[in-house]
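Board notes (copied after class):
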Amino acid sequence: MKTRRDFIKQTAAFAAGSILLPPFVNSSKKIDNIGIQLYTVRKEMLADAIGTLKQLAALGIKQIESAGSDKGYYYGLQPTVIKKICADLGMKLSSGHIHLDDKWKQTLEDAVLSGQEYLICSSMPAAGQTVDNYKKTAAAFNKAGEDSNKVNIKFGYHNHDFEFEKQNGQVLYDVLLDNTDANLVHMELDLGWVIATGNDPLTYFKNYPGRFPLWHLKDMNLQKKESTEFGKGSLNILQILQHREQSGLKYFYVEQEEYTHSPLESMKENMNYLAKLKL
């Protein structure tokens, strides 16, 4: 599979028309309850998980989404420990990226201990860019959603680029949406990947209202062909946020993969940008 950067480079020209969106008029509501996908600070979390969480809390982050690492889903911490650390810092570990594999039962048990509300599968459990495989995957996701519901956790899936490929004229991501139970499988829409493939998130909000309670929010610099700090790219962040109700949004997590500064300095810049927006 292509890397994120390689794919964005190949699709930047096509994506430009999709992300240069007209501005909306601001109202008086400020953006709050901001989250971060910890992949943004992946090296920092591995080096000093507790210290990094403290720095994120100091920036005003309220929601945390974990990701897989060389030290596991909780960066070497026990699920109950990271739960308490986040709570003590005024944050919530509300979501986590996981794999749907032979360790699924343990993953689910650990998520209960961590207090997570969502478990998000971060990759397709089986390779195969076919409608048939996506229907089989949808069935597996529905089952995982049933398992999760039994312990009061919501299961979901995070898209990349390849899900928007087509077979026989069918968009594979749409096959996944059409064959999963909306009450069991909650989609986390990576806005960057949607746009990079030449698609429009607002179209998905319209066609599948309420299906996207989670987002990955990122800006993209088309000249450098990489993610960047908010306001330096071409994504109209305000307009996207103004369609949050149609999306069914509950949490969004800032994700940035390349940086003008250090990851934490870039996050500070992102937070300052969001603080100036009014919905």
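Comment from the instructor: Residues 1-27 have pLDDT under 50 and may be disordered. The domain at 29-264 is CATH 3.20.20.150 (TIM Barrel).
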